[in-house]
Fold this protein.
Amino acid sequence: MANNTYFKHEGPWSDASKEFLCSDTGSWRTKRPLIDNDNCIYCGFCAIYCPVQCMEQLDNTFVPDLNFCKGCGICAKECPKNAISMILEREFK
């Protein structure tokens, strides 16, 4: 059994508030997630599996915080309803 004297959680989540742990995307992301709200069932899998925890709850859907989204596509891969598409970044410029 793990000793949780130093850590509040056993999972990958962080309670850190130091800026050096926040890594914004900059200009290197090549794809971004686009949510199809008609197909989204609000299950939250995208938020659970996002490695940088950038999916934010908004009304009855989730939206990526594009300041931190790396464009990895894990949210789209884990979505059970295929409600997330990865779109090339150049299509938004």
